[in-house]
Amino acid sequence: MAGVNPVAKLAATMVLTVPLVLTLDVVSAGAALLVELLLMPWAGLRWGEFWRRTWLVWALAPLTGVTIALYGRTSGQVYVEWLAVRVSDGSLELALATTLRVLAIALPSVVLFASVDPTDLADGLSQIWRLPARFVLGALAGLRMVGLFLDDWRALELARRARGVADRGRLRRFLGMAFALLVLSIRRGAKLATAMEARGFGAPGPRTWARISRFGAREWALIAVGAGVAVVAVAAALAAGTWNFILGPG
Predict the structure, then answer these.
(1) Maximum average pLDDT range among 57-61, 80-84, 201-205
(2) Where are the transmembrane segments (predicted)?
(3) Burial class (CB in 10 A: 0-12, 13-18, 19+), 210
């Protein structure tokens, strides 16, 4: 996957996600998740790296289901009823469908973009999707600055500790550091915009690129795989009679 154009990964994720967003049922989400897990060995990630990158998704998806189970639409037999909490057959089914849908949408997104280089993505967006170069370059520059946030946060924490103001008041300290980080980000963004403008990044007219972004058979194959997973999910839901178009009546 490291050699596949990031634009193809983005397109495959969109093709796969749209059908899952349009319905909320157990069969479509479960079928998509099953096929995705079968395809994971060909994603280019070792199992150790796969679990390190996706453990947060596995941990948070059930929490979404718990919320739906407690406060979702009530139907069928009610098992627990307390104040605003109602656990019923309908809420449990929605909870399971929501959990599976979150996993089916989030897992391929995390795995496909695990090896994406921001510069390659910017090249593809500009050269293949023909997005405005000014917008793409600005987004790329901002994305490159994200890695500095952690260093800035650590520097702020060490500076406050050296001044003796970081020993207590954890919430107050967090809000103060967050505001200081916001000020630093605004100043750095202004300086970066001025530097890029001075170097001609905002100049009108066609722009040349140092690296050619190529879109070939591998990219089309990845998009076809994403479309295939979506077709399997929709077909399974239609065959089981569980397709639930969320924009439909009722």
Answers:
(1) 57-61
(2) 20-43, 55-74, 94-116, 128-150, 220-246
(3) exposed
Q: How far is CA 15 from CA 18, 203, 227, 228, in A?
A: 6, 34, 6, 9
Which residues lie closer than 8 Å to 123 by C-beta, 6 or more apart? 209, 211, 212, 213
Question: Do the beta carbons of residue 31 and residue 104 sit within 8 Å?
Answer: no
pLDDT tens-digit map of 151-194: 888 888 888 878 776 666 777 778 888 888 888 888 888 888 88
Question: Whose structure tokens read 């140092």?
Answer: 210
Q: What predicted TM-score, i.e. pTM, was given to this entire model?
A: 0.80
Residue 139 has pLDDT above 60, yes or no: yes
Q: How far, in whole angstroms, is CA 61 from its chain's centroid? A: 13
φ, ψ (nearest 5 deg) of residue 25: -150, 160
Please tell me the distance from the alpha carbon of residue 233 to that of residue 33, in angstroms, as a whole number: 9
What pLDDT sits at residue 231? Answer: 95
Question: How many beta carbons lie within 10 A of that of residue 164, not counting itself?
Answer: 7
Which residues is 77 bridged to in the sheet?
A: none
In angstroms, the Cα distances linking 67 to 28, 64, 97, 157 are: 21, 5, 12, 35
- Helix extents (H) in 72-216: 89-112, 118-127, 133-162, 170-198
